[in-house]
Design brief:
Length: 648
Amino acid sequence: MNSMVVRAYPLGIVHMINNGNVENGGESGMELAVGLEFDSADEAREFYGQYATRFGFRIRTGQLYRSRTDGSVSSRRFVCSKEGFQLNSRTGCPAFIRVQRRDSGKWVIDQIQKDHNHELGLEEESQSSTLQQRPPSVTKPLVDMSRRPKAKLLEKIDFGGSSSGIICFKRQRRGGDGRQYIAEPYSGLEFNTANEAYQYYQAYGESAGFRVRIGQLFRSKNDGSITSRRFVCSKEGFQHPSRVGCGAFMRIKRKDCGSWIVDRLNIDHNHDLEVQMVCQKKISTASKKFIEEEAGGAVSMDLGEMNKGKLIKRSKENKIGTDWYSLLLQYFQAKQAEDTGFFYSVEVDNGNCRSVFWADGRSRFSCSQFGDVIIFDTSYRKSNYVVPFATFFGINHHKQPVLLGSALIANESKESFTWLFQTWRRAMSWCHPKSVIADQDMAIQRAIAEVFHGTHHRFSLWQIRAKERENLQSMPTEFRYEYEKCIHQSQTTVEFNTTWNSLINKYNLKDNGWLKHMYEKRENWVPLYLRGKFFAGIPISESVESFFGTQIDGQTPLREFISRFEQGLEQRREEERKEDFNSFNLQAFLQTKELIEEQCRRLYTFTIFKIFQEELRRSYSYIAMKTYEEGNISRGTLQTCLESVQIV
């Protein structure tokens, strides 16, 4: 018995007659049947998509199944978009097709469910907008276009007229009202770079009424290069009150030729879309002026997005040299081309550039892991400086510093620091740290109080020491001894207040303005008042080392800044990789028979476990002795071979 194979043509491949209309008999080619054969799973999906359009429903890519032998994909399911119940718009529709790969490499439909549990429309409005973008009918006989490259199928789609068939975002057309008309994305859409895909999806989001965030990325197990990326609706997930778990996304995959293609897509949202978003406003004149000057007249959408907000009207000095901006812009654009998670923002005032902030994708991820405590380092002010370079960094699970952002500060005003802190929070998905270690300047204090509500501000020790040398240098040695004892050995607030007042009266320092100010701010620097606050193990009585050490300081010249920055950052990250390796491959020796020691060895990193182990070992040398008891109150002493501490 001779078997018959029915050939199904992919998207856009239908029988044409001379007048350009579809033949009546062509509709039979759209009928689903077990045994329909395709060259690839993508062709099967495109065919099912055409079928869905004809009958008034949408489709999604469902489960895939892999071979137990070599891990290759052996079958795929394509389902109605209303399958499941994850979103409010879904009804658990059972309609689907499943295609299975044969030994010949062909894909064949082996399972079908045509019945839907919801109403179907002949032509959904949402589908018609997509169909309008498809190639027009032409007066040609049937041609098997499935053998031609997919890029050719894109040539006639009006996304900007790229002769290569690959979308060039910068060539998007604008209507008479200045708004961009961005066609709906679909599987198979191709881009030159991942950044172009991100810009396209961002523009599509603006035209459709939603914002876009950068989601997961996936790397090759062979060389670590990025193989695919996800761009998601800003309301994806539930990490922030404004997010509602929206499932809309676009995933792109890198092809062997280096271009990127959309391979997965979900355009359904579980929230209302805005007809005209705030982010669709025109780029401010000031921002355009900066962009055009630095980019040779070619407007950059990236920088435009960062500067679409309000302009703060003020005219103050700018401590950043004008030649720094063009260098940084070139660096930012280069970084953004290879890292779509890279964020930068420039403060603009009346057309003039001021403070600058930037953070790469890894810094933004690190903040989600280690952003409970941040150190805002402005130690460039220790001496005369050429570049006002500041850093945000935290402490990781190896007790190492991790960069959370960098900045050049135009001036040390409250407005500049407020802009910087707000920009940092926006870049870090509105992270709200528990504690901030920063200088005690009044401008910084006010900016932290305004932006980081409820966050405890601890003063930088280096600045306190510098102020002590400046204001107490004429005091005798006895005063220094009593001053240090009051600060570091007071056990209660009553004891501290009594000792402090006694010290002030003894040395007649009631008129010392600096000491009066420091007493008012005692909760921000005295160890007694900082107990119970979380600082990620950063010692209260020790200065925090600068993230870049001596590689970058206030004297770093312009021509060396970028190279030193990259070198210092890579050095720190290499140290982190070494500690990761040690934690996975080294195991500390146990020093006791306590079960908690064995448990913590499994849970902690190598560095943190050694700290815990030392604390556990030292606990064996303490002896508690009761000396007095009255009702519920007991007094005693905690003794070691070296010291005796009174306890209550």
